[in-house]
Design brief:
2 copies of one chain form a homodimer. Chain A has 534 residues and is of the alpha/beta class. Helices cover 43% and strands 17% of the residues of chain A. Chain A is built from 22 helices and 21 strands. In chain A, the strands form 5 sheets. An 8-stranded mixed β-sheet of chain A has the order 12-13-14-15-16-17-18-21, sandwiched between helices. A 6-stranded mixed β-sheet of chain A has the order 1-2-4-7-9-11, sandwiched between helices. The longest helix of chain A is centred in the first third of the chain and has 24 residues, at 102-125. Chains A and B meet through helix 4, helix 6, helix 7, helix 8 and helix 19 of A and helix 4, helix 6, helix 7, helix 8 and helix 19 of B.
Chain lengths: 534, 534
């Protein structure tokens, strides 16, 4: 359960290497079939029975969703279904959860949540409609996976049900968006949701439709055919020309004990200080797709492999004007499918950054390049320190991409959230054609502190040391509250409300203590609860 | 730390009995002066130094806010200030928190949050503007109290600062709305909020104004006078005739080992089954103000005195048509000040019910009276069971008060939240002049289950037993997620996002373990953190 365990997780994969999913392309449809190899867990110690999933299974799913967008734009609808007998998916593997550290459990859930949001993002913005073909038992995280699809169909075989048995069987929540998507996305009546989420055996057939838990049921004999018809109907709605697809190249970073190096992104680890430096270097040219894919991978490694790093210093290198020009091209070309996909991927990566539970300090210094889409990295940070050099060479700049094309999880742009008190300011900054030197950036409210050269090193060092000395839990909670000002939507509630409650429950003896329900799942003993309500 | 400890908390008080606050009425102003008697904690074991507060202090504040509305309608602005030398308020008492059970900590914070929302409700809807006159140190919960006021003024004496030192000093959050109100209510820029919330010494003077932390600073010599002027200006905005005030009579329930009995409300406790029955009986006539004050008090006793009760069965008794007539009068008369205050109090009480972390089952049976404002009690419940009697005598009914005058914390009515999938339905139910028998109620989606007489007792018994057997933590988390469908505002974020994170932190060893920061506060030892981020 130490860092060494999670350090083994592979985050890059390819359909040819999948162990748990089969991806079949038959344009305009694709089918993603879950047939988990129970003998191939991500780390040794448990079997992945009944199409239950662990991080390794979800890494493949996330890979498939990403490749479908970029490599198979001809696909207009995707059917997710089960490949084992009478089971769609039984959810997250309980033995994996029960034997994982708290930190891993939380990050595992965050990752799977992000994968499900990527599915919804594809349905909403990429013209790839996801349908869940629940051809057997659809339990817990299995139903939560279905909930991420645009439509859910259940086989009517007198046996197969959808269920969220976490509360009655495990003493934890359906925390991968389940409760939120029930009442907020599918608008299931709250009392029916209450009954459903406490009923271990779930709901099947006509009642599942009446309660809005699924969009339809079909008998086994007509199931595949009906799903195919429905998928073709949805696919036919998408008439925009797309393609040809491009190949997502391997990232294959070089990993050493104190660094992870990609072509443009470098993550340097200071294990003793519990800090890291994440540098995005585009001085050789800005290729947004590659750069943001690298950034995304680096963030995942940070979360899953280096959980004792509490503070990340974010830096950039490159030419401001070049980045602004690339951004301008992306903005002008956003109607074209590949450009749109690139911007959507950039947006998802930036949301992954917002949701990374580490303190983030952006450092704007000589040769830095926080412009436009890279400026968002600074805007996602908890603080922005800028060097006030005597020549005024240190600068930041906006681009049209700061105007809302890279939204936060809850909808608004980072500039809108930053200037909630002065909405016009956000628009002025987007429209500003001149770069901001330290004085102008401070005046505009873009930086937390503009610091003179003589104080620069000391002030940064003290800020970093102070931050790294504070309680990691208090910082995680504080950052989760300060980063997301403004009204919350369902997506934000998954991370804010639902995940926070789940984290609390994961840390309570009633779930994870020696006699807790999660600990004892599958064992003959009954859990013992401390009955006090809070 | 057992239930016996909290059972001692007195929830009713009167200005003549205050130990910690002084209420001075000088129409159109009132001044609430905090001068905590450090030798009078709510329970023995700690001293309330430096104007720090515990539940007893906040019970007095809540009482004052309620009495100002009803007993002193001539008051149009309220100044909250400190009565000790150079201190406004140092926040919640740390030794009280450190020695309290998790369950008490959570409920203490919930109560203080509700008191602060009552202050905001008075500023927004009752024409009583609250100003914080921070005439000295304003730290932690002290600043959170100020944040609940419409305007905040700080003395400029070169020394007094506002601060949120929870993260750096205690390893917990400013969880009484602090973080949320910073960025959502006062719209403080998120990076400045980050600096502020990690800076133990806080911010003073001009910078506090620039960062939007306070609305102004005045030198000591002009402080009182300037506040008075500002309060008179706000008071002058309120020109609606109000008064004369009425007296809020004592509730003085009769408390026995298995019941709390008020005039209309009875809370019967089944300690062995960990359930309670809460009955609202208006068969002798419906006096909404009295009934809802009793209900409010009963809910607080339930939360604070009986934390092992996991499930509350909600019942009503009375005449449907009488309640509807009283509601109709309230609706027609809502422009008049006392009627408006009564409806606002009903709304706050119902929100207290929504936020009560116990399973709530409404039972609609013979002689029950879930009509209009009392129907909201059922709509606030997790489930509604209705007896389907052969004569059709068991009925429910709506009134105009179901149309939005009794909103939930996040804004919408309970019917709107219930019928998110079918907004017209909520309006139809409000407009329906006929009562609903079991068949009609089921058809309209008003009940979870309409149960035949022959199955009634068994079905209820099984539902209650099943519910009472589930993990109390999982139920608390589940209910907090299913009850509040729809977009969230700042108020909802305080309870959903902020409180959930705080509960998590309260249960983590880094805060409350033997070497946790909260445990060791004020002791010579330094806390020891597990540095893993989650």
């Amino acid at each position: 359960m130490g860092p060494s365990r999670s350090a083994g997780y592979a985050l890059e994969t390819h359909p040819q290497q999948y162990r748990h999913w089969r991806l079949a392309i038959e344009p305009p449809l694709a089918t993603l079939t879950l047939a988990v190899d129970e003998e191939s867990p991500a780390v040794p110690g448990y079997k992945l029975k009944l199409n239950s999933y662990d991080l390794g299974v979800d890494v493949e799913l996330a890979d498939a969703v990403a490749r479908l967008r970029f490599e198979h734009p001809e696909v207009r609808a995707v059917i997710i279904t089960g490949g084992l007998d009478r089971v769609f998916c039984a959810g997250a593997n309980i033995h994996m959860l029960a034997t994982s550290s708290h930190s891993f459990k939380v990050n595992f859930c965050k990752y799977t949540n992000e994968t499900r949001l990527a599915i919804e993002d594809a349905s909403a913005h990429s013209g790839q409609h996801y349908l869940a073909a629940c051809n057997g038992t659809t339990a817990g995280g299995g139903y939560e996976l279905a909930l991420a699809c645009e439509e859910i169909y259940l086989v009517d075989d007198g046996n197969s049900a959808v269920s969220l048995p976490e509360v009655p069987l495990l003493g934890v929540l359906p925390g991968t968006g389940g409760l939120t998507r029930l009442v907020d996305k599918r608008k299931v009546r709250r009392d029916l949701a209450d009954v459903f989420a406490t009923l271990a055996e779930g709901i099947k057939g006509k009642r599942a439709v009446e309660w809005r838990l699924v969009d339809g049921v079909f008998p086994k004999s007509r199931f595949q055919e009906s799903l195919r018809e429905r998928a073709l109907t949805l696919a036919a709605l998408e008439t925009q020309p797309k393609g040809p697809g491009i190949v997502l190249e391997p990232l294959a970073p070089e990993v050493t004990s104190d660094a992870v190096r990609y072509r443009h992104v470098t993550l340097r680890l200071n294990h003793a200080g519990r800090t890291a430096e994440l540098t995005v270097n585009v001085s050789g040219g800005y290729s947004p797709l590659r750069v943001f894919r690298e950034l995304d991978d680096a963030l995942l490694r940070l979360r899953l492999h280096y959980d004792e790093i509490g503070l990340v210093i974010l830096k950039t290198r490159g030419d401001l004007e070049h980045v602004r020009q690339v951004d301008e091209d992306l903005y002008q070309g956003r109607g074209e499918w590949l450009t749109r996909e690139t911007v959507l991927l950039m947006a998802r990566t930036l949301r992954r950054l917002d949701l990374t539970a580490r303190s983030l300090f952006a450092v704007v210094d000589e040769h830095s390049c926080f412009a436009g889409s890279l400026l968002e990295i600074a805007l996602a940070s908890d603080r922005i320190y800028m060097l006030r050099d005597s020549e005024g060479c240190v600068r930041m700049a906006s681009s049209p991409l700061n105007g809302g094309l890279l939204p936060m999880t809850h909808g608004p742009s980072r500039l809108q959230v930053r200037f909630l008190a002065d909405p016009a300011r956000a628009e002025e900054i987007v429209a500003e054609s001149e770069p901001f030197d330290a004085g102008a950036a401070e005046e505009a409210g873009l930086v937390t502190a503009a610091v003179d050269e003589i104080d620069w090193e000391d002030e940064l060092r003290v800020a970093v040391e102070e931050r790294a000395s504070l309680s990691p839990d208090a910082l995680t909670g504080m950052e989760a509250n300060l980063r997301f000002a403004g009204a919350e939507n369902a997506d934000a509630k998954v991370f804010g409300r639902l995940s926070a409650w789940q984290n609390w429950i994961f840390s309570r003896p009633n779930a994870t203590g020696e006699r807790g329900a999660l600990t004892l799942y599958g064992k003959p003993e009954r859990p013992q609860f401390n009955w006090r309500r809070t």
